[in-house]
Amino acid sequence: MNRLELIQAMPKAELHVHIEGTFEPELMFAIAQRNEIAIPYQSVEEVRQAYNFHNLQSFLDIYYAGANVLIHEQDFYDLAWAYFEKCAEDNVVHTEMFFDPQTHTDRGIAFETVLNGLQRACDDAAEKLGITSHLIMCFLRHLSEAAAFETLEQALPYKDQIIGVGLDSSEVGHPPSKFEYVFAKAREAGFLIVAHAGEEGPAEYVWEALDLLKVNRIDHGVRSEEDPALMQRLIAEKMPLTVCPLSNLKLCVVDDMQQHNIRRLLQQGVHVTVNSDDPSYFGGYMNDNFIAIAEALDLSNDELKQLAINSFEASFISEADKANWISKIKVLV
């Protein structure tokens, strides 16, 4: 089969997606109207025009504005369910979704309101679509470590519904070391650990995520290539990088997709995976990201299959489930 057919046929796991970043303008308008909340845009097209970012912060500004319309458990359910429908279209059979409780609790929304809505969608996706999922709670790094500790305390009663803890939001000026103690507490509580590092921030942030936060995965990590010693370590430890190509292009981490380093990283033996990050804002879900790099970097079918295999190997599902999905990829020709 050709590349496009293979991309559609391959089962895939998504390991780096912010559920608040899947908020399509149409749904944002519908929920805003339902909740009688004013938003600073007059039409869906006006929102799409605003999706012209020049860096991470300019994206985050509109991202947080959109989140303001999410009030009730049903809102969070609807948000997640819309994403699961996209997963079904792209043959994403497992997803590990980030959610940002502080974005909502700081607005007076109860932690359990957020979690219950997302969990209900996860349960329905498993039953109705055959898509499995995990939830990963992220701390906002532009806030204080003290605020992260408060959020961790809120999460502890729901630990059986949250598999891991992550770190996201504005990277520059907020190194992983800022959150060393709260991540130690999260590890002690039994959470798996991930962290955004090496997207806009330097390779040094990846070192900190490895050594101080003791992560199980690095989110982004594309600037690791700037440090040969770091590259050797990532390869030796088979440390996964959850790479988001269209996000990197939209946020000007790369100026042209042909400059993206995901193929070089793959060829050097880095455990890279493909993900959509904030797909409604960055112009594409999982298959869009695969198609973009396949065309820009002339990826072979074997390379595409390896990226899909990596996604399951790097996931937090059981070894038996990993082997099952990987076997389904390997037989595709």
From TrEMBL:
HAMAP family: Adenine_deaminase. Keywords: Hydrolase, Metal-binding, Nucleotide metabolism, Zinc. CDD domains: ADA (cd01320). Belongs to the metallo-dependent hydrolases superfamily. Adenosine and AMP deaminases family. Adenine deaminase type 2 subfamily. GO terms for cellular component: cytosol. This is Adenine deaminase. Binds 1 zinc ion per subunit. Catalyzes the hydrolytic deamination of adenine to hypoxanthine. Plays an important role in the purine salvage pathway and in nitrogen catabolism. Substrate binds at residue 278. Its EC number is 3.5.4.2. Zn(2+) binds at residues 16, 18, 196, 277. The record marks 220 as: Important for catalytic activity. Its cofactor is Zn(2+). It catalyses: adenine + H2O + H(+) = hypoxanthine + NH4(+). The active site is at 199 (proton donor). GO terms for biological process: adenine catabolic process; hypoxanthine salvage; nucleotide metabolic process. Residues 11-330 form the Adenosine deaminase domain.
